[in-house]
Design brief:
Length: 1033
Amino acid sequence: MPALTTNYTDESFPLYYKSFVNFIKIQCKRHADRVYVRYYSQGTYKTLTYAEIDHMSTNLACEWAALKNNTQVVSFLGVNGVDFLLTVLALMKLRLTVLMISPRNSEPAIVNLLEKTKSKLFFASTKFDSLAQESTAQCDGVKLVMLDSFDIEDRRKQPLHPQSEEILNMNFTTEDINEPVLIIHSSGTTDFPKPIYLSNKYIINSSIFFEYYKTQKPDLDLLNKDDVVLPCAPLFHMFGFSSLATVTLQGASLVFLERLPPSQAEIDFALRQNKVTAMSASPIILEQMIPFLKERNDFSAVRRLRYIIFAGASMKHESGEWFHKHQINIRNGYGSTEGGMLMMPDMDPSGKNWYALRPVVRDEEGKFFCVMEDIGDGLKHLYIRAGNPNFALGVSNRPDGGYDTNDIFREDPDFPGHYNYVGRLDDTLIMENGEKTNPVPMENTIRLCPIVKQVAVVGQGRQCTAALIELNMEVAVNYGPQEMTAIVQEAVDEANKECPSHSIILPEMIKILPFNKSLPSTDKGTVKRKLVDSSYQDVIEDLYKAFLDGPRTKANTTLSPAEIEPFLIKSLADVLHLPESSIDPSLSVFELGLNSLTAIQLRNMVANRLGGDIPQNFLFQYPTISSMREALVGGLKKKGDSLGYGQTELLAQSYIERARSEFPVAKVNEEEREKVILLTGATGSLGSFILRDLLKDRRVKKVYCLVRGTDLRHRLVQSFVSRHLDPTLLSTDRLEVLPMRLAEPYLGLTKEVYDQLKKEVTIVQHCAWLLDFNMSIGHYDKACIAPFYNLIRFAYREVNPMELHFISSVSASAGLGPQVEEKALPMDARAAIPMGYAQSKFVCESLLTYLAQGKHMPCSIERVGQVCGDSVNGVWNTSEQFPLVLVAGGSLLHKMPKLESDVDWIPVDYAAAAIVNIMLRPQQEESVYHIVNPASESWSDLLEAMRSCGMQFDTVDPVEWVEALSKDDTNPAYTLMAHFESTFKKGMSMPRWQTTKTVQVAPVLQKAPIIDSKLFSKYLDHWKSIGFYDPSK
């Protein structure tokens, strides 16, 4: 490899490789055993070496060689990740020019790109099946190839294609250096996205930018082979692809995130799992990182980064200063697809200038290719001189061969020769998230409407666009106010049809100016945008404030409870432009197509009609029409959130959002499958009886038990012996005991065992859960919910996923009213008792309901009520609340609380039998079951059973009972004082859980006995045998 000089025009480096494909081949051989990519899979990050990437992409190229024919340009629409990388490299190895299409494009934009590039071969991920099919249908002679997700593990094991050297022409010459190899399109802010052709020379040069920078700052080590780089931009953007090229030169590692755009939690996980040392991101991602870091107060992962490069838009200066104040080295960067990487600030981590940019690329005379042209008012326009070695093909827009960027800068007063980005010379708006919107074609469309004289679309630095409308008075006088508004809205709708989703103008963001107001325009009829911004500053500010904050008015009409759901359906249909008949009240509105902007729009419509006291996160708290209706009717809605319900709902929604992006819709075949079961929690009371019944049922082929700790089988045996169950049942080859560490990759198993189980298991029953009434939902998230999500990943298969059963609790639905139906919960955490245990079950039920409805996963929820000791031996865990209450009150305090509640407790052997009935049944549409005793008794009946067994006590008010307990810290029930204070003092009236549907599937439930004196005496006998109960006291 030739040495670099300060002359970037020296072509010895790109000529050494001749092509980007050859560059990849040489580097993959040079760094064969080093990790090339790290990609997210099943809750962890996996790795592929340079040799494996080269090997797998070669095999793919050989598989697709026959599709090439006479094609020169192939288009690709895919999901960013390792599949995307392998596909692009494979197509390049076929010597095809690859057009990488952003999934954000509209169908007309994709059609236009296919036609402009004369692409006759179109590869697309199945995730974009509909968009690809519809786009292809409008193009003549385009062959569409749909790609399923690659089985990476299978492909990495495949031998190299035996004829790869004959199939693939890897003999490159110096003439290949200027041949187009990649097409990246502009963001579609003009009429349609513009394809930009990149040569082999361009991409190879992009790999050496940091090395070139080092020739000017030789003491700096910007990147080396030991670095791990995390780009937060997709490969179909040059910001992302240049990271790949740079990493490849060094032999370093590239990290592919779980999804793009990522959440801050996903970025944090990637940083920590991969020990990332360098990162690149857009400013908006870094802006969002600040509150995340403040909340977590853990800077270890980001401080490990040697630097973070941001580009694509400006960052607020105070935000950048905050990062540096907290020892996080962020640095600005500037480049474009047309001109490559061009400017950087001082990359010395000790330097204070992290933001002001200085040209880097020089010619053989040491002159910069970037020229700052004075355009007045202290502003500079960036022009790139002809001969820039980083130019894309054919982008020159000046007669001298140079390129006008239309980007405006201002020289920094503190750092002479360095420049701060101001904006665009043309009309392109840079949105808050870095996306670009060209308002001109939108304005041109709106201006076609006869009633519109002039229009200005604004949105620079904003979350969304807005339109100021000047009416043509001569036409407008023929219409009433509502008619004028409707006509303008139709014109805006036309403009929205072919613009990117981030550029659409919402109805609330249209401002029709009074007749005596006009928009400043040039003689040519174009709007003077800067003058509009200054002249209508207050109008624009009020427009955005009203939209983002929402109405603060009282309800303008009153709706009856029966009218609320139709109103919500119509409002959602209007926002999404869908027929009302297509709105399913039980589906998440986000699944139906709502996004962050239209969510604000819908929330404002609700607030405007029903009153302004609707929280900003209303749709995230209640993401279905049904849950919105219940909240608005008032059945569940209470003022305030002192009990943390909002935190629970946001947690549930965050898991649902993860599942929405992670799992494709599953396909379930109806054929009967063998009963191979994975069971957790088998050493607990309920789990032990479930395991016993499964092993006794010959329909069960095999049971895998995941058990915590060490000496796993011994723990199972001890659990059986302590409950007087037959331990010889455990001596069978139908049972295999494995270690349980659900929070770890592969559930704590080896990859081989994990993969084997993933193919073999057909039913998962998750019975393990922490029972601690004092723990918060945050604790339960880490201890139980996040590990359960890993188990869901295990159970998911795109075809025939495992049947997933979850032992929930009636406490998750105790707030629903006097009668709880056997159906899914609304997205309202007030349905659950306000304690961490119940709220954690609520989160998991909400997630499973989404998976069942949205992803077609066969999920069953068994809501278990109060389980008492078994009906044969009376073994009842003495650490549970009611054994403590019964013995502490009936024997030690000689006082029992007087409670106004029914007792629907169910013996554990009957509960387990019912659950096993449900697990082994043929698949049912019903998915929520209540494991409670259909036959209940009153609390006073239970007290009489206690007295008939010899206990002597007074019945007192619950408050008095709690006070008596609080004075005796030697009482075993004292450990649950906080729980008793929060429940008994407020009263303990509980609803009835319906069992009509459950007993049809599990008839054994109807045979469950109530706790009479005969059964209670068995409990006392057991407790006496283990020293928990002393009848003499």
